[in-house]
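Same chain as my last thread, 142 residues:
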Amino acid sequence: MLLDSSKGQTGDQVTLLSPTLPLSTVSSLRFYYHMLLNATDTVGSLTVYRYSQLHTYEQVLFQVRGNRGERWRPGKICLSAGVYQLAFVGTIGLASLSDIAIDDIVVWKNENCNELDSSPSEGIAICYSHADNDDTCKYVSK
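reply #2:
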C-alpha cells in the first residue's frame, strides 16, 4: 500500500483491511513500512488496529508518527487469539510531503511472541499484490 500525499490533504486517511484472521493461538505479525515525511511533520502516521467483526477499531496494536528516513523498517506485533481483521491506517501529514508505504505483511503462529526476532517458518502472507491487481486485501478510503 502506498499513501501518496500529493493525492490528498492533511488529515486524510487510507485504510487497508486484512482478510478475517481466525487465530487459534498467539501469533506474530511482521510487516515493513517506509515513512519519508517532512522533518517537521508530526501529523503523518501509520497505525495498525485490531478491527472487530462489528466493524469497529477495537485496539491500537502499533503506531508510529513522523519521519522515519529513507529506508524500510520492520513493524512487529504480538497478536492475541481470536477472530478479527487488521486495519492498517495511513494518515497524511503535511500535504505532498508525507508519503507512507507498507509491504510484505505476514502472520504466523508463534506462542513465544515476545521473541519477535524469530522468522516465520510457515507464515501466511495476508496482504500482497499480483501483477494483475488481484489483491488479497481490501482498500478503504476515508
